[in-house]
Design goal:
Strand content: 25-35%
Order of helices and strands: HEEEEEEEEEHEEEEH
Number of strands: 13
Shape: rod-shaped
CATH class of one domain: Mainly Beta
Oligomer: single chain
CATH topology of one domain: Immunoglobulin-like
Number of helices: 3
CATH superfamily of one domain: Immunoglobulins
Structural class: alpha+beta
Distance between the termini: 116 Å
Helix content: 10-25%
Largest sheet: 4 strands, mixed
Radius of gyration: 39 Å
Length: 238
């Protein structure tokens, strides 16, 4: 409740305190007591975890199921791993816990409660794995197994590569970039990721050029044809 400053009357030494002045003091003290009591002195520790790991970035808010105002918890600090709700009054409260990438949770408690409130969060989707350096085919198989769709696959030249029928030369090409990054939570079944893989090397057939010195033009042409080569433009000189 808001505090209202009562009228204060100054008196000189030896003057009696009037009834109205005394009553004003009593009224002010009573209002002060009520306001302090309304602030509450109860504490509640909330342990927010996911996969057995604390979640210091979570937001914890206590909502009174009656008169009062919502109270936001102090996040973990120093060596503390729990969120701290302070200034709560006795009675029923609803605790709201939110953390990006996780399902929101609510808990109802009645204070004073000496126990620590434990809230175990669950993922709101699928965690994108780290695909850097993995062969393209293995990366495609891994994300598809998690229910994530690869909606674009590019190589380092900017050329789009087929995701449904991966060309053989890209099967073992390592993934160099991914979007979103590893650890990002995407919706299960509708999550999408884009990959950049290294350009596939194309190996061209080569032959060892023999020496044609001393051969006639016809003999040189025959040798070249046996190697799968063609005789190009020739110059005849004396």
């Amino acid at each position: 409740m808001p505090l209202t400053k009562p009228p204060l009357v100054s008196v000189s030494p030896g003057e009696p305190v009037t009834a109205s002045g005394w009553n004003a003091l009593v009224t002010g003290l009573s209002a002060l007591y009520d306001a302090v009591i309304a602030l509450g002195g109860a504490l509640l520790e909330v342990s927010v975890i996911a996969n057995d790991f604390p979640q210091p970035g979570a937001t914890v808010i206590a909502e009174p199921l009656g008169e009062g105002h919502p109270v936001q918890a102090l996040p973990p600090f120093g060596t503390r791993t729990r969120h701290l709700l302070a200034g709560l009054t006795a009675g029923p409260w609803r605790i709201h816990v939110e953390n990006p990438g996780f399902n929101s949770e609510t808990r109802d408690v009645t204070l004073p409660d000496p126990d620590v409130l434990l809230v175990n969060l669950t993922r709101a989707g699928v965690v994108v794995p780290d695909l850097f350096g993995i062969g393209t085919q293995a990366a495609l198989d891994q994300v598809r197994g998690l229910g994530i769709d690869v909606d674009m696959l590019l190589d380092t030249t900017g050329r789009e590569v087929s995701r449904t029928t991966l060309p053989p030369e890209y099967v073992d090409s390592p993934v160099l970039m991914q979007l979103p990054g590893a650890g990002t939570v995407v919706p299960s079944g509708t999550g999408r990721v884009r990959l950049v893989t290294s350009s596939a090397l194309r190996r061209e057939p080569v032959v060892t050029m023999p020496s044609l010195a001393g051969l006639t033009l016809g003999e040189a042409n025959t040798v070249l044809q046996r190697l799968g080569l063609q005789l190009g433009t020739t110059d005849l000189r004396d």
